Amino acid sequence: GAGVSQTPSNKVTEKGKYVELRCDPISGHTALYWYRQSLGQGPEFLIYFQGTGAADDSGLPNDRFFAVRPEGSVSTLKIQRTERGDSAVYLCASSLTRGETNIQYFGAGTRLSVL
Amino acid sequence: GDSVTQMEGPVTLSEEAFLTINCTYTATGYPSLFWYVQYPGEGLQLLLKATKADDKGSNKGFEATYRKETTSFHLEKGSVQVSDSAVYFCALSDLYGNNRLAFGKGNQVVVIP
């Protein structure tokens, strides 16, 4: 597709359940980022992939959160034992690479609601 | 760590008025600075950027100048339209590090006809 695609657009789950959020980056973009945006706040960094490897996962809040990008394209953010505090919009962005020409392009996000 | 501070509260103004949204930053090194915009029902879009001190980014009538001496990157537009109603986020990144973006809280701008 032409842009970053995130699915589902909305996800409602119950406390304690497991969820997976998918991100399909722009074709050819080697860098992929996940951010979390709580209500009334700016997006906060979670994890960064360069190719298949997680180059920086320092933003993941705890070990319930995990992300993969096995073939260097699509990425999945996985949240175990969801809590009400995990409710937020999860944003994915991709870019060609690092450096001055690097611009991050964002998807529309997945709105996660934990009941 | 690196951080961005935006002025508090929503901004409401009349069409053709002058818009300023303040943004200041704290960073080690020499970050690049960005303004992103989020229109209702849409994803974040890059509005403009500046990669070094004294650079001016501009797009769609919006401008912002990278001021190292005041650590600021204020957004301005001389004459706003109703279609400019959106949430505006200031952000910074180290383009030669991992390029992670640090965002401010955002400002809701409402332009009244």
Overview of this structure, please?
The complex is a heterodimer of chains A (115) and B (113). With 115 residues, chain A is mostly beta strands. In chain A, 0% of the residues lie in helices and 48% in strands. Chain A is built from no helices and 11 strands. In chain A, β5 and β6 (53-56) form a beta hairpin. Chain A starts with a strand and ends with a strand. The model of chain A has no long low-confidence stretch (mean pLDDT 92). Chain B has 113 residues and is an all-beta fold. In chain B, 0% of the residues lie in helices and 50% in strands. Chain B contains no helices and 12 strands. Chain B is globular. In chain B, 36% of the residues are buried. The interface between A and B is medium-sized, with 30 and 24 residues.
Question: Summary?
Answer:
The complex is a heterodimer of chains A (115) and B (113). Chain A is mainly beta and 115 residues long.
Please supply descriptive tags for the structure shown above.
heterodimer, A: 115 residues, mainly beta, 4-stranded antiparallel sheet, 48% strand, B: mainly beta, 12 strands, globular
